Structure formats: structure tokens, C-alpha cells
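retry 2 of 3: previous attempt timed out while embedding zinc ion. Reduced batch size to 1 and resubmitted. Inputs unchanged:
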Amino acid sequence: MSTSMRAVRLTDHRLVVSEEPLPIPLPGEVLVRVLVVGICETDLQLIQGYMGFRGILGHEFVGVACSGRWSGQRVVGEINCSCHACETCRSGLPNHCPHRTVLGILNHDGAFAEYIAVPERNLHPVPEDVSNSQAVFTEPLAAALQIPAQLPALRGQRVIVLGDGRLGQLCARVLQAEETNLKVIGRHPHKLDLLRPLGIETALESDATPDHSADVVVDCTGTSSGWNAAMEWLRPRGTLVLKTTVAGTQTLNWAPIVINELQVIGSRCGPFVPALKALQQKRVDVEPLISARYPLEAATEAFELVQQRRVLKVLLDVAAE
Ligand SMILES: [Zn+2]
Ligand SMILES: [Zn+2]
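retry 2 succeeded.
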């Protein structure tokens, strides 16, 4: 193992591919040799200034553990590095630990690099019949699976997903598997086309007339526009699930929340074990979402591409197995 590595560093809204020292694992952490890493909407928000993060980006990865319990095995890693000692952690909410760092997002270098240090307890071995291209979706798929984890009685409910992008696509696949009465509303015909073969009803935003019919609206628009649309789609006492983080401050009209007695639920990271199981059992097909792949060296090109509206998931191939 050499003592330096290539990595993609975020400095002042700019990405630089640089030579970096290998990460030094903290107590309880192991080094993971990164194989494939995905670019996510959150990465784009971080470049815009969300969270004020400076460091190595990247939190959707599959790699090989260099030591510890899973040494030599392919692994994926949960992104919240929690203390597991405070009251929040001990109450069963380690993802909300006030002392946590988050891989590639908050005070912890991420996976756009040849190596990343990850708490050993965050790692999950990847089943042999799940490919790297599938496993790299574990983290965002887990985030989509957080919706049924928070709303367990979704079956048969009228659910509308707003947004046909990366996260909307994953949420739609999960909610279809949950046997909801689902419709996805988006702005991109070719993205909606990926959903119809799965039996998912779709509509272009410009063709759809909101009718206060939805039990649940899941906002995956990645913009503050989803809020107003959700207010028009939800039935009284309906539930809005907010899945996207938008950098900066939004101005929103609160009145419909009160008038229609709506519930608003924030939804972030989700469970990895069901995500890996869904991939292994082929219940959620993720590979059609891959638009392009680049070597790590070409990360800045990859980030330019991912900002184009037609593009879904862009992967960086960091190393072969
Ligand atoms: Zn992400
Ligand atoms: Zn804690």
C-alpha cells in the first residue's frame, strides 16, 4: 500500500483532483479500498455551499475492507459516524447523534478517493450475487427505504412522487414494491419512460392537474417548487414526505398545512440491510439509472455531466477488484 492516494477534494465551491495522504483511521475505523462511488444530489448541494463542507466528497460507495472483521471482503458503509454513547444514540437514533460526523458530508472525508476510513460497525458485507454497479446504490436505496420505515402502512395508499430524478426513481421503485397506488410526476419524458415498464403510472408536470387526492406526497424535486405542488395534491390530513435537502433558505406558504391539517415528515438516511436484500432479491432494479461512468481522474468532467438535466446516476470507477 502506498502512502498517498488520488482523491477529489472540495475547496471553496471548486473540485480538485489531488494527491492526498492516506486517511488515518480513528479508533474503531478501518480503511476501505474504494472500487466504485456514485455522485449524488447532495454532492451538488455541498458544492453550492450546503453544510459548509470542505474536504473529500463522496458517500455512496462500494469497496474492499483492508482490515477488521470484513477484511478482504466487498463492503458498503453507512454514512453516519455516531458516538454510540450519548442519550440519542442509546435511545436507538444513532443517525441523529449530535456528535456524529458524516462521510463526505460533515467533518469526515468521503469516498471520492482510493481509500476511505469508515467505522467498522458501519460496514455491511455485499452478497456475492450483488455486483459493484448495484451495490453502489445501497446508500441511496436505503434512503428511499426510509419512507416505508417511517410510514409502515403504505400498502394501497394513493402515493404521488414528485420528481423523476435519481432519488425520485429510487423512491418510485421502492414504493411500487410496497404495493402502493403510485403515480410519479416529473418534467422529463425520457426519465418517466424508465418507470412505465415497471407498471408505474406517470405524468408530466405540465399535463397533471392537482386534485387533493393523495394520501401521501413524496417530494424528490430537489427544489423548493415541490412544496407548493404537494399542497395541491394532498388530501386533508395527508402526509408530505420531504426527501430532498435544498441549500439556502426557502420562503414557503405554511397556511395549507394548518387548513388541511397536513403532516410533514422529514426523511433522510435509511436501513442498509433491507436495501442490500432488495438488491439481492432483484426487487429493485437500479442499473437502468446509470447514465455514465468515469475514472476518478475525470471527476470534474463527471460532475459537469451530472448537472445536465437528462442525466441520472454517474459513477466513478476508482479501482478494479
Ligand atoms: Zn447521497
Ligand atoms: Zn451519540
